[in-house]
Amino acid sequence: MFNLILFGPPGAGKGTQSERLITKYNLVHLSTGDILRSEVAAQSALGIRAKELMDQGDLVPDEVVIGMIKTKLQDNPTATGFIFDGFPRTTAQAEALDALLRDLETSITMMIALEVSEEELITRLLKRGESSGRTDDQDRSIIQNRIEEYTTKTAPIKDHYSAQDKFHPLEGMGTIDEIFGRISGVIDPVI
Length: 191
Ligand code: B4P
Prior knowledge:
- By secondary structure, this protein is α/β, with parallel strands linked by helices.
- It contains nine helices and five strands, in the order βαβαααβαβαααβα.
- It has one domain: Rossmann fold (3-Layer(aba) Sandwich), CATH 3.40.50.300.
- Strands 2-3-1-4-5 form a five-stranded parallel beta sheet.
């Protein structure tokens, strides 16, 4: 199996690049942001609880997202690989993911981290907020909080995968095509 973590701050291009990568490499896309937003839309108990946190730009509790990922892994027993987009976002989530994959007798192949300046992140997210209807993309202070959550709770995960020799930082500025080319350049020799 080929299991990729696409990593980066909010607005780095994880969702955008994942859409292309799943087609090129025939992978199953697991985006915790998308799964949470579908729970919110369905007004499930989980969605109602998550909405308040997401609207403020705070992370949803670890046990909630770990449970979601576990279910999705079980739902896809014949997958040839997964793209994890927006997960893991804490060290506890990274440790849980390692254990879940171990149970399936597989592991993370690599983590690709998209590096983008804070100014560009804010510009991209505010632009998406004009059309997406996403509350968390429309307010500069909420975007700042999401970046702060990333810096304090998510960025340290780099060390977890660096220690396993799986961490690949990449320039995330440029056109979507240019960045896709850079990502493919890291994956193609391995897959
Ligand atoms: P996510 O849905 O993961 O939100 P995101 O980080 O904003 O998405 P992404 O980074 O994929 O956006 P993209 O760059 O593609 O999370 C939302 C919320 O859900 C979190 O704040 C949290 O509350 C919760 N959550 C999710 N996962 C969680 C977890 N594991 N644990 C706890 N809580 C969790 O797109 C951004 C914009 O940039 C788009 O408009 C795109 O068109 C544009 N763009 C992309 N690439 C570009 C480029 N090269 N140039 C110009 N624009 C570009």
